From TrEMBL:
Gene from which the chain derives: asd2
Any single biological process term in GO: threonine biosynthetic process
Single GO term (MF): protein dimerization activity
Top-level division of the source organism's lineage: Bacteria
Keyword vocabulary terms for this entry: NADP, Oxidoreductase
Active site: 158 (acyl-thioester intermediate), 251 (proton acceptor)
Family membership: Belongs to the aspartate-semialdehyde dehydrogenase family.
The keyword Oxidoreductase is assigned to this record: yes
Main enzyme class: oxidoreductase
Protein's name according to its UniProt entry: Aspartate-semialdehyde dehydrogenase
InterPro entries tied to this protein: ASADH-related, Asp_semi-ald_DH_pep-lack, NAD(P)-bd_dom_sf, Semialdehyde_DH_NAD-bd, Semialdhyde_DH_dimer_dom
NCBIfam families for this protein: asd_EA, PRK08664.1
Record has NADP as a keyword: yes
EC number: 1.2.1.11
Amino acid sequence: MSEKLRVGILGATGMVGQRFISLLENHPWFEVTTLAASPRSAGKTYEEAVGGRWKMDTPMPEAVKSMIVKNVNEVEEVASHVDFVFSAVDMSKDEIKKIEEDYAKTETPVVSNNSAHRWTPDVPMVVPEINPEHFEVIESQKKRLGTTKGFIAVKPNCSIQSYAPVLTAWKEFEPYEVVATTYQAISGAGKTFKDWPEMEGNIIPYIGGEEEKSEQEPLRLWGHIEDGVIVKAETPVITTQCIRVPVLNGHTAAVFVKFKKKPTKEQLIEKLVNFSGLPQELELPSAPKQMIQYLEEDNRPQVREDVDYENGMGISVGRLREDTVYDYKFVGLSHNTVRGAAGGAVLCAETLKAKGYITKK
């Protein structure tokens, strides 16, 4: 066994679990040693458990094919084989809250892709380029859980990744009112066109719970720690519409912004292309070299051209222009299952390791 940290994936057979497995193949710091899923998959090899449901473009890594899947509900057993876990379980919110806390209480850090703990006051919800200082709330969480090493950290919803980093880059101009419409890929629902043929040539103007997340979660990212909990920011006010579109990967956002301090277009672009944070400073393995690219062409960003920018960990922005009602408008694009899901969680785990929160057991 190498010096790499031993990783378990909870919910390993689902689409986000598969994305974790793909992203962690040959990772320099982490090695997948344990896969866990529902009782119906337990006891099978990973290849058998997934069957014909492998949804990634790249082949299933050889290293996981013959791994025996464990029962995710056998917390002590799974936890005994790993240094930390990624959580992508498909359960009810209450079940997810409980099982993630149960893992944390075995002194196993949990880095979660799920939404269940995003509003637990002492659980950090982090985009490492935006608010890595929120990881400091982990010390308060450990006191509550009665742990020394175990905790839960989460990443935010996939839909906000195409505009929250942009607004963060512009914070000195004080954006105070934002309208965003997101055009969201079907992989955000864990589907492919094979699973969901009725999405071909179709648009559905409703994604359950998505608009509330898209309006509120950025405010938590921009919040601060007070008395051992995260207090969300009050501004900017954000209103959204979230629409499912016939695209496999890539969430696009059309966004309108009002600023208290009126910037020029050149100033806004300069802030975007120079935006960076702790992951870039530390040169973390999954960190994009340049988080945000600005595209001058009128017909960009496009999903087909730009979704894989920086291996899916970067944000593409275009069509920035003055507006007749708002100050400026733009279009943003992010990869919803890489930056928006598993990749964002891997970057959180890399940041937590670099800051000493995740260590060998």
